[in-house]
Amino acid sequence: MAQVAPDDFSRYETFNLLKTPYKKVDSHEINVDILYPKLLTKSPPTGSPILIRFHGGGLIAGSSLFPQFFGHWVLELAERHQAIIVSPDHRFLPEASASDVMDDLDDLWKWTNTSLSSYLSDETRAEIKPDVNRTLVTGDSSGGLLSILFSLSYADSLRATTAAYPMVDIMGEWYTTKFHKDFFGLPQFPESVVGDHVAKVKEEEARTGKKVVVSSDPELERAPILFSAIQNGLYKEYFSPRDDRLIPFDRLDKGARFPKGGLFVWHSVDDSICPIDGSEKLAAKVKELQPDLPFTLAKRPGEHGFDGDSKIDEDWLKKGLASLVQAWLK
């Protein structure tokens, strides 16, 4: 993907953008961005389909509208089918835990079911109306992990799932063990990058008596914390073994299943941030435990984020999406 300035929102020029809090933690508002095509002047009587999209950034960095992470194909899909995109922020590690992030996802789904319709009615003079019963979920990288976890939580309410190069094997050696990891030609970041950041957070919390909450990083200033966390295998510190919502493979082994409309995962064979073996492990697990699920794992050339400028009519993407889109819209 070509480099994009953090404040270059030109890719959204054919969409109307709305932003609103979907929850508050103490006094900190956590926002969700609502995007709908400008060509969608009025929803049909049954409402417009919904595309819930989780952004990447390792659960540590990025933001909902960070353009570098927002693939053109998502916007194309929404525009072609006149869908509403629901793209939330969430709390970040290491200030929060993975359990906190899952709480945010649960609260987002509650907000989508109870407040999205009235919010859009107020903002659009009742012209735009969502159909929550037709919801597709997508995400990339850590957002791919979240789309998978979210789908396992609400399989009976969602139509289908996609995940791009997901951090699905989050308790695997890559994310939990310290060793030299080369990606994007970057140096090895010392563990002190995370340690020093955590020390500053604790100092501020002691000084103010309030917990520090961070849920957006629009300039990607937290990237060194992300890289250090991966290279030094620190993710195990934030995923509690007592929370059975957090590990996809454990959830599948305990009976959780994906939405019946299907699962489409794509991953580059050369991914240096999130190795493809996690997605291959997921493919084997789905084949074993949910063999009737329409499932595709597309293995592609390129690096992490290779699909940023991909179009939905490219053969590999068109084929992978076909049955899922049908299940989503019917």
UniProtKB/TrEMBL annotation:
One of its GO terms (molecular function) is hydrolase activity. Residues 52-170 form the Alpha/beta hydrolase fold-3 domain. This is Alpha/beta hydrolase fold-3 domain-containing protein. Signal peptide: none annotated. It comes from the Eukaryota. InterPro entries: AB_hydrolase_3 (IPR013094), AB_hydrolase_fold (IPR029058), Carboxylest/Gibb_receptor (IPR050466). Pfam families: Abhydrolase_3 (PF07859). PANTHER family: ALPHA_BETA HYDROLASE FOLD-3 DOMAIN-CONTAINING PROTEIN, ARYLACETAMIDE DEACETYLASE.
